[in-house]
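Case study 2.
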Amino acid sequence: MTLLVSWTGIDSRGPASVYIATDSRLTWGDQGHFDHAVKTYAMHNFPAIIGYCGDALASQMIIAQASALVSSAMNPERATLNAIANLFLRSMKRSYRDYPKNLSSGSFTVAICGKRRLASNGEFECYKICSDFNDTSISIIEFPLESGALVIAGSGTQSFQGVFQKHCVDDNPNRSTSRDVFHAFSQTIGTNLDQTVGPIPQVVSVIRKPNTGGFHCGIVSDQKRYINGQLIDADQLDSESVWFNQNFEITDPSTKKRVSDAQAQPQFGT
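Prediction:
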């Protein structure tokens, strides 16, 4: 299983960004675990991001297949997020019913977030798809009036909600901010005793800027660099990826320190 949290950052003009964060662990009961699994996806030619929890191997195959269908069958300039979500829905319905039941945990959840169209200056949407062998359904998630969570799912849900509830107090200076959701997520996977949830975060995002697609965020965690759960060595730093540390502060991946002119964002309750 996993912990999946999607959320939105909202300013005076409305939604400015959406994010999906997950841990990076796959578990096989008492047989072992793997802490570098891909659980988030960014569609670089369209402003959409995807994350999943549940039946990991089936999810990875079905999402990869659906993403390939979107890339080959849809024009990025004309496609809508609703059309992409419904293509995922149909692909999941067709594929999961043929998946071997004895090799499956029985269900999984997919969150799809982004902008309605590539050229949109805002107009964010979020969809949640739940699938098992009997039924696959889709729901539209309403956006809050302030920065906050959209979808919370996975075996770490209860742990996250317990942590986040402690943040919902008047003396929290980060209350109702995008960073506060990530702080609660980071605290949950960093201290969680549930062995199905691992300590390495991965994050994808879409921002309001028109004609920009989804992208992966680099994460500096415990003085190590990760993108999509994969350790990144110094000689691999050759991109313009946005990097964050565990406080959700903009970070220089070379020094692993907060960028000098970036706002400090200490966590509440630590």
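The domain at 3-258 is CATH 3.60.20.10 (Glutamine Phosphoribosylpyrophosphate, subunit 1, domain 1).
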